[in-house]
Amino acid sequence: MKFSTKLTLLFTIITTTLTTVLLSIVYIQSSKILERETRLLMKSGVFNVMDTAARFLTTSYHDLKIIADDPVIRSKTATAEEITERLLFYRNTCKKYVSLSFYDLNRIRVADTSGLSIGKQDQMTLFWEETLSKKTSTARDIHIEEPFQEPIIYFASVVKNNEDKEIGVVVARILVNRLFEIAIKIPALYEAKIDIVNNNGLLLYSNYNQKGMLIVNLFEQESMRNRSQNEFVHNILHMQNDHENQIQIFYVEKAYLDFEGNGWTAFFQLPDKIIFAPVHKLLKILVTAILCIFPVILFVVYFFSKLTTRPLTLLKTAVDELAKGNLATPIEIHSKDEIGYLCAAFNKMSKDLIVSMQKEKDVSSNLENLVFERTKKLEKLQKGTLNIIEDLKETEKSLKKSRQDFINIVDKSIEAIIVTDKNGVVLYLNDSAERIFETKKENFIGKGFGIPIVVGEATEIDIIKHNDEPRIGEMLTNPTKWENNDAQLIVIRDITERKKTEETLKKLLMIQTTFVSTVSHELRTPLTSIKEGICIVLDKTAGTINEDQQKYLEIASRNVDRLSRLINSVLDFQSLESGKMKFRMEENNINEVAREVLETMLPMAKKKNLSLVCQLDEKLPRAYFDKDKIIEVLTNLVHNAIKFTENGSITIRSGKENNFIQVKVEDTGIGIKKEDMPTLFQEFMQLQKNLGGTGLGLSICKKTIEAHKGKIWAESEFGKGSAFYFTLPITETVA
Amino acid sequence: MEKVQLFILRYPLQKQWHDMAKRILLVDDDQDILSVTEYRLKHLGYEITSAIDAEQALVFLQKESFDLIILDRLLPKMQGDDLCKMLKSDVKYKNIPIILFTALVNDVEKIVKETGADGYITKPYEPQELIRKVNNCINRA
């Protein structure tokens, strides 16, 4: 069922239930109130009626007493006409009496206002008996008199004369109808059915029931009489005749003053129809109104619910569309309630869905492409693999062959080669291993190697031979693979000879070191004495000396210096050669070195009339070198330059080449022959033996420069001069 | 090496010595070296005491105070280097400057550092070098 219909239905049910309940309540309450009111009204009405009737009757009763006391009527001598006149007088005064009569004691009507039945004897009835026996005023009764054909009430009173003797009876007649019409004047009870019944149950008066006055016995009086006469009894009796519900009230006439009362009962009946007519009318009006309005409201409600649930229908439509796959249906609802929020959320969701679906599409199309590419690649690979397999088969064959070759090589290797598994069990050994361990291959394979293995480090092992001196072996172990398992490759080299040589060398080196230091000391010490001795005299410290003394002492001094230099060269060469030379590597300025050398060598150059100049790059960075040693080098080069130049100049240049300082000593000397160039820097090579020197100079320079990680070389053309170059590194790391 | 007991005689006023001639202790096993060096130094105005080995040097040190020690490295019995180290670690003598007098010039800088000596002179030396170095060392103290 649609939601709007549900709402409408809900409304309908609620309204209907509510209306029904309310109406019922209204109806029931109204009915109750009305009933109560009606009863009250009827009660008072019935009471009033009977009360009025009773008073009326009482008044009549007293009237009759007065009439009976009338002097004329009381006199014995009154004639019938006089009595009649009197009676007429009274009758005209009280119009309620139909007629008045006077009877004598024999019940013969003497006088009558209507003039009827005069002289006739009245029948003996109950009231006669009562009247005559009591001799007082009596109650009256109702019976239908012939001429009137209507119920009449009789009042009788005994007339007494002056001597208090009964002379006759005065009778008054009242029409019952008349009586009760006067009594019944209750406007509210117009519709009430009133019955007045005597104590025999005979209907005396009825305002609706015209048949059978004094004939019809309406009610069962017994049940009535059982109830107290003073109580109102109301019960709803079902009228035998009419079959309708009604309220009935009866009231028994009471005695009034000295009037005994007749015991008449008044019955008031009011059918429910009439009582509840207003309520029913109200109900009818309400129901009609509701029924009229209801469709209108229903329509309105339906319309409104439709309006409210329109978003839901839209939502439903959109969802259906979504289910079909049609995504682009945004809902145009922007109310600020929950439904609006829902619609907004739905819109967002469908947007997101579109986006993610698009993404998915992209992803899937990407995937497809990828798959396609990969498949292609795989196909290529497959082809390639097949080719590879062919190649592999070829390779296998050649591998087998080469394996055999290698086995041969390894087998015949001088070094002992053993392969063990990771636990040290021997898997393979070559011929040399057989020899070293003095055991056959078959005996060793499968057994433990026996010697502790240090992987990656060379260890020395003693090989004890049976018939030979013990040998020393160097064992190197490296991890390897043997038939796809982890294994160890052990190589043992016989280093006995090497060890011997090493020992010898060590000894020699020790000897040499001692030798050097001893020689050094032993040569230099006497030299010091000689030099100082000469100097003391030359300085004239010990006294004056003559020219000849000076000359020859100077010769001696010069040669002492020369000898000193020689010894220095030899010792320097020795220490350079042995690698024991220690350099003091520091950052120094090469230009300072150049200038120092210049200063030192200038005198020597001057002697040969040669110019000695520096051309130095002042922006040179400092370089890393041993200053003293480089001074020596440069001094040596300049010294050589001076030695081999007869005229001209020697130039010291400094500059920067890449990461090195370059120094150039250029001369205009005799130059160097091509054939001499290769051996120029070799020790003990002298180009001109006679010019002195040890022949170690250039060799020392080379070793020094090379120890500085620099380079030294010469460029020359015989006859045109030479240029000697050396470089020194700028940065420490190079050195 | 025999352990040598050192007796220290403290003179109350060391300042007195500033006015007097500086005293140099020469230690070398070569007589000729001692002779020529002594001669040279005497002419510079110093008072020289010579010892031929470490033992004798120590004896002199105990008796007298010196402003400079010139110490040959290669000595019989205790070596010059060891003596130098010893003296430098002795609180009584460590303030006396020591110059190593040596033919072994290869790591001389390192040796000077190791022994704690205050300088060195090579054999053979230029006379000016000797004068200069001695003056420097002696005046530093």
**What structural class is derived from the secondary structure elements of chain B?**
alpha/beta
Q: What string gives the helices and strands of chain B in order?
A: HEHEHEHEHEH
Quaternary assembly: heterodimer
Instruction: Give the mean pLDDT of chain A.
Output: 79
Percent of residues in beta strands of chain B: 15-25%
Outline type of chain B: globular
Give a short account of the largest sheet of chain A. 5 strands, antiparallel
Give the DSSP E fraction of chain A (strand runs of 2 or more residues).
15-25%
Q: Pairing-aware structural class of the strands and helices of chain A?
A: alpha+beta
Strand order of the largest sheet of chain B: 2-1-3-4-5
Cα distance spanning the termini of chain B: 30 Å
Could you tell me the number of beta strands of chain A? 22
SSE blueprint and pairings:
The complex is a heterodimer of chains A (about 725) and B (about 140).
Chain A: H1 3-68, H2 71-74, H3 80-93, E1 99-104, E2 109-112, H4 126-134, E3 142-144, E4 151-160, E5 166-175, H5 176-183, E6 193-197, E7 203-206, H6 221-226, E8 233-235, E9 246-252, E10 265-271, H7 272-275, H8 277-324, H9 338-412, E11 416-421, E12 426-429, H10 431-437, H11 441-444, E13 458-463, E14 471-482, E15 485-494, H12 496-538, H13 547-578, E16 586-588, H14 590-607, E17 611-616, E18 623-625, H15 627-643, E19 649-657, E20 660-667, H16 697-707, E21 712-717, E22 721-729
Parallel strand pairs in A: 17-19
Antiparallel strand pairs in A: 1-2, 1-5, 3-4, 4-5, 6-7, 6-10, 8-9, 9-10, 11-12, 11-15, 13-14, 14-15, 16-18, 19-20, 20-22, 21-22
Helix pairs in contact in A: 1-5, 1-8, 8-9, 12-13, 13-16, 14-15, 15-16
Chain B: H1 16-19, E1 23-27, H2 31-42, E2 47-51, H3 54-63, E3 68-72, H4 80-89, E4 98-102, H5 108-115, E5 119-122, H6 127-140
Parallel strand pairs in B: 1-2, 1-3, 3-4, 4-5
